[in-house]
Amino acid sequence: MTDLLFAPPRIGALDLPSRIVMAPLTRSRAAPGNVPSDLAVDYYRQRASAALIITEGSQISQQGQGYAWTPGVHTPEQVQGWAKVANAVHEEGGRIVIQLWHVGRVSHPVFQPGGARPVAPTTMPVPAKAFVPGPDSQGTFADIPEPQELTIAGIQLIVADYVQAARNAIAAGLDGVEIHGANGYLLDQFLNSASNWRTDRYGGSPENRARLLLEVVDAVTAAIGRDRVGLRLAPMGKNFGMDDANPEALFHYLVRELDKRDLAYLHLGEPTGKGRKIATETDPRGQALMRDIRAGFSGPIILAGGYTRWTAEQALADGRGDLIAFGRPFIANPDLPARLRIDATLAEADPATFYGGGAGGYTDYPTLAQTASREVVS
Ligand SMILES: Cc1cc2nc3c(=O)[nH]c(=O)nc-3n(C[C@H](O)[C@H](O)[C@H](O)COP(=O)(O)O)c2cc1C
């Protein structure tokens, strides 16, 4: 097997020691006030050997929250919490960017200022339930009401919130931001013909549906520098009612516009379907779309979605991407790069502890060295 995963790349302002990225992973364990907790400091510190940590999605405003106990990056306390996380990762020699999140219609009045209905491009309801705080600090699922259609003024406020959140991230000492344009959340809702029926300049053609995303990219790069801004997209993703009528036309246009912006990177969540499907097994249409995106974007591309050591090396060898993001493997293997280097068996993450709770299933997954010393002791 080749060792392309360990060839050090540069992306934007950052020199990385390998191509093994920690994918953004919501864990729903923020402290009161949606502040990253001390446990989060430990969790990210443990994973600092990643070439780059992309944090869990973090709401840019109260309106942008859609799940119980997700951290924000819009209050002074939250920024202080992120500063502790950034310090810890830097102390270990790592690098960390924060994923900037606005969920749009995938929210609930319990999270919204004044108990309002969530906002979206159009009033079409999302075919899903919201994960809200329940009794005994357990999360529970609740029906989502019909969203309210954003006004132009409302859209402009959201662009300003992205800018402020990005500035907050830099003030916290984080190395940059990843704009979350994937997985059926606000920016994806604007992109996707299934959730955007607007008739103004933000709806209709691919150019119009891509407008908000590009405005956010332009405003955030102007605020903190293009070499500190990445973007995540999910071409042909089906999360939360996404189902674009012509993803080829949409992404062909969008990616070539993004290429002009010289971002630090483009991060693609590959169409993987349900469960842990190997990326190379996905459908030919998805693969053709990925090839067109690769051809249209000259900057670094991070691929994510069901990768193993083997399929990651193949993707790099084939030139399909430049870095590979691992999600679930990083939950259960805090020292994932060390394990991949020696092709060690990986621990499996337990889905029961993905969201909510405390240290269990969060900071108590051992490193290989810890596992070995436990075996010696017992
Ligand atoms: C528990 C969990 C939380 C996730 N949270 C996020 C998130 O906050 N933002 C995001 O863009 N993707 C999120 N994802 C998707 C992952 O980043 C990744 O794309 C996905 O897990 C596939 O990669 P994997 O097969 O290596 O786990 C999440 C996935 C899981 C399993």
Structural commentary:
By secondary structure, this protein is α/β, with parallel strands linked by helices. 33% of the residues lie in helices and 16% in strands. The strands form four sheets. Strands 3-4-5-10-11-12-13-14 form an eight-stranded parallel β-barrel, surrounded by four helices. A two-stranded antiparallel sheet has the order 1-2. Helix 1 (38-46) packs parallel to helix 2, helix 3 (152-171) runs parallel beside helix 6 (211-224) and helix 7 (247-260) runs parallel beside helix 8 (284-296). It is globular and about 65 Å long. Mean pLDDT is 94; it is low at 274-280.
Show the helix and strand layout:
Elements: E1 10-11, E2 14-15, E3 20-22, H1 38-46, E4 52-59, H2 76-91, E5 96-101, E6 119-120, E7 129-133, E8 139-143, E9 148-149, H3 152-171, E10 176-181, H4 186-191, H5 206-209, H6 211-224, E11 229-233, H7 247-260, E12 265-269, H8 284-296, E13 301-304, H9 309-317, E14 323-326, H10 328-332, H11 336-341, H12 368-377
Parallel strand pairs: 3-4, 3-14, 4-5, 5-10, 6-9, 10-11, 11-12, 12-13, 13-14
Antiparallel strand pairs: 1-2, 7-8
Helix pairs in contact: 1-2, 3-6, 7-8
Bound molecules: flavin mononucleotide.
